[in-house]
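Annex B, item 7. Sequence and structure tokens for protein A, then protein B.
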Amino acid sequence: MWSARRSWLAAAVLVLALAWPAAPGLPRERGESLRGQFLVAESKLTGPNFGESVVLMIRHDRNGAIGLIVNKPMGEMPLDLLRRGQGLPGGDRNKRMRVHFGGPVEPGVTHVLHDADFAADGTLVVGPRVHMSKLAAVLAALAEGRGPKRYLITIGYAGWGPGQLEGELARQDWRVVPADSGLLFSPDDTDKWRRALDRFRIDL
């Protein structure tokens, strides 16, 4: 199903040489902020971007919302290319790293979600057990044997303007589910959407 996403991968390769842009500032928790929660697409949401998507919310405030889709792998990229694209010395040319489609906005922007066992300059706390760091910092740490045990690299992100996500929630396009690091970092992407929906039913 996701072979079509490989075209996104080719586009992303062209822009990975650019510096990883600063992640948007995270708001303080207020009211009904969904930061650190999963948005799980309802069956009526279709299309290549959000159909059967599981989105980890990174930001949600009065200015809008930002999230990363975590269950749509694009393919694998050579480690050497990823490192050079971040201004690091090249790595093992035979090693490849899995990359996920994070959303349709800015398809060259990279983010790395990872366990709370790792932190670097600029690391953002997304949830109790999930952090987000710059790709360059994670790649450098992995090369030194001190990187995170579990991580997920995404390209692009999902974005909503002020009030847009609230409207989609009111239409019941999405279900809000407590985030789970085991589900987030599971290698079985094909089962994440169903497992997330099952969590919603249990929480009811």
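Protein B:
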Amino acid sequence: MRWYLTLLLLTILTTAQAQSLDYDVKNIDNQWINLEELSGEEYTVIDFWATWCKPCVSALPKINQLSKDFESKGVKFIGVNVDGPRNQAKVKPFSQSLNLSYAIVLDPDQEILSELNASVLPTLIIVDKNFKEVFRHEGFSSGDEKMIKDKLVSLLK
């Protein structure tokens, strides 16, 4: 029993520690970039999506508007596209067709998705300036953007 409590405590402590966004990824212009370079001064919003995901496609214009609303408040948005290698050529024109104004990076092998324990698309994660997760939202329904906006407003107070 004692070993179980020790293991549980270690798990809690490890999970509570700040993560890192130290991932080298390609952006939609096929250039290598480190995710930490894209992070915000206060918060970073990481949005996992795919071109084939209908809820993602519905969410993207709303996420884009939120990125514009919060860009002057120290919040940066990063779109992480998880389309596989065969669909990667579609990501840039798709992003352009939606006029996405925030950074889009590619995670074709879903390494970052897995590393951040996301298993549903879309998944939106907010991390603070120490890269500690402070909010997670899975899926998307109309109106969810208001809840995300309210969360960002409350975090910035």
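Comment on protein B: DSSP finds five helices and seven strands in the chain.
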